[in-house]
Amino acid sequence: MSAVLPPHGHAGDHAHDEHHAHPHGWRRWLYATNHKDIGTMYLLFSFTMLMVGGVLALLIRAELFQPGLQFVNPQLFNQLTTMHGLIMVFGAIMPAFVGFANWMIPLQIGASDMAFARMNNFSFWLMIPAAVMLVSSFFMPGGAPAAGWTLYAPLTLQMGPSMDAGIFAMHILGASSIMGSINIIVTILNMRAPGMTLMKMPLFCWTWLITAYLLIAVMPVLAGAITMTLTDRHFGTSFFNPAGGGDPVMYQHIFWFFGHPEVYIMILPAFGIVSAIIPAFARKRLFGYTSMVYATASIAILSFIVWAHHMFTTGMPVTGQLFFMYATMLIAVPTGVKIFNWIATMWRGSMTFETPMLFAVGFLFVFTMGGFTGLILSMAPVDIQLQDTYYVVAHFHYVLVAGSLYALFAGVYYWGPKWTGVMYSETRGKIHFWGSLIFFNVTFFPMHFLGLAGMPRRYADYPMQFTDFNMIASVGAFGFGLMQVYFFLFIVVPMMRGVGQKAPQKPWEGAEGLEWEVPSPAPFHTFEEPPKLNASATKIVA
């Protein structure tokens, strides 16, 4: 554990401190090597990006409130859809889960910190210039990239200089992800408390261990795809340019070989959070722990052989379509195992519905709907009709918003008292939950019908018959956005300021795990002496 020494002349002031002197003010954050501080910075960064991406989404929904062009031209509209996707995926969802990993993994395995504390600091601060570059691309000549978040060739070869800024930003974010993943893997494999075998580890640590391996496997693939795009743009290569013998469809293969595991990178840590919360509020041990670990690993392995289900309309041979169709359907099996185990955990449990449990059950319900629409889209003949319509938009928002985002909210309500030392207001938490759930469904449920009726995505204008559902969706989107502002102002800010009832060491009756063995708020240094666990791995041996 490294600690930053105080400036010269102040050494004596801190000599009597309990442990190493930790810096105060801006130095504490700039030079942060403590996993809790870095976790906090990741979470605040990701919430900031969630707000930025949310504003872009609301501009999209404002434009689509009625037919005709209201606020933006089609070019700017495509910039908005592209940047909304990139910012939400790489700026909001992924960093939020890394923030949870930083905060919770050392606490859950009884480690004093992450394995590489300075690399941890570096991997966070890399994200700031990348985010600034992404957001500032709107102000570059020709505006932001407008090729979709997938950055398909040949559109990327026709974009202005902002495309290069976008590529650079993606490279930096990828490097940050890889460093974070190495840190998580080394921490989990080498720094567990004595007595905590891998199969006694909390599921959140398992899901992140598997996610970290996925990240290391696929981030270089994305880097390769966008580097080839860069050389096509500036150095006369023709990887994706048919005029020089290249192939734009090859870009899609490379991108989705990254892109499909990426969607599991964004959901597996969510499974880990939900697997911690449901047993706590059902007051039962998680049903089928071992099968949950194997299911997570199966999902990760299968995610590498399904990428071309995004490409059924590219003229793939029927044999290829069949392979990718059946491989995709196969992923529903381990996912179904997880859903079954969560429901079995709740079955005949002594359940109470505090806010974390509400979000976990909401996650279960709405994520399952997203899973079913995914199963429908896995069928090649159906997908050929629905590809690039609003049905696909509805599907992945059910999985990503109601999946990843709800799990993140659940985690904030569940572990927030441990982080801040104060309890949130249960009434406000419930308002946030019900408001989010209702507005989310008002926003995205009508999109299934729009897609089935044939409305294509990424269009700034549409025929009159799609008006009603678009109006409903736009109203819902503004409601959903306001609920997240409410969450920040009335849940996050009071907790960060320490306003509210003091949190006990273990605020949830049924909660288990090492993180509840330290005081609330969690002290700056924890587990400097590794805890020893007894045979059941739930209690510390005195």
TrEMBL record:
InterPro entries recorded: Cyt_c_oxase-like_su1_dom, Cyt_c_oxase-like_su1_sf, Cyt_C_Oxase_1, Cyt_c_Oxase_su1_BS, Cyt_c_oxase_su1_dom, Cyt_c_oxidase_su1_bac
EC id: 7.1.1.9
Cellular localisation: Cell membrane; Membrane
Keywords annotated in UniProt: Cell membrane, Copper, Electron transport, Heme, Iron, Membrane, Metal-binding, Oxidoreductase, Respiratory chain, Translocase, Transmembrane, Transmembrane helix, Transport
Top-level class of the enzyme under EC nomenclature: translocase
Pathways per UniProt: Energy metabolism; oxidative phosphorylation
Keyword Isomerase listed: no
Cell membrane as UniProt keyword: yes
Regions that span the bilayer: 42-62, 82-103, 124-147, 167-191, 203-226, 263-281, 293-312, 324-344, 356-376, 396-415, 431-451, 471-493
Xref: CDD domains: Cyt_c_Oxidase_I (cd01663)
Membrane topology: Multi-pass membrane protein
Gene3D superfamilies given in the database record: Cytochrome c oxidase-like, subunit I domain
Pfam families tied to this protein: COX1 (PF00115)
Major localisation: membrane
Gene Ontology CC: plasma membrane; respiratory chain complex IV
Top-rank lineage group of the source organism: Bacteria
Entry GO MF terms: cytochrome-c oxidase activity; heme binding; metal ion binding; oxidoreductase activity
Gene Ontology terms describing biological process: electron transport coupled proton transport; oxidative phosphorylation; respiratory electron transport chain
Catalytic activity annotation: 4 Fe(II)-[cytochrome c] + O2 + 8 H(+)(in) = 4 Fe(III)-[cytochrome c] + 2 H2O + 4 H(+)(out)
Role according to the record: Cytochrome c oxidase is the component of the respiratory chain that catalyzes the reduction of oxygen to water. Subunits 1-3 form the functional core of the enzyme complex. CO I is the catalytic subunit of the enzyme. Electrons originating in cytochrome c are transferred via the copper A center of subunit 2 and heme A of subunit 1 to the bimetallic center formed by heme A3 and copper B.
Family under the similarity heading: Belongs to the heme-copper respiratory oxidase family.
PANTHER family, per the entry: CYTOCHROME C OXIDASE SUBUNIT 1
Protein known as: Cytochrome c oxidase subunit 1
Organism ancestry: Bacteria, Pseudomonadati, Pseudomonadota, Betaproteobacteria, Burkholderiales
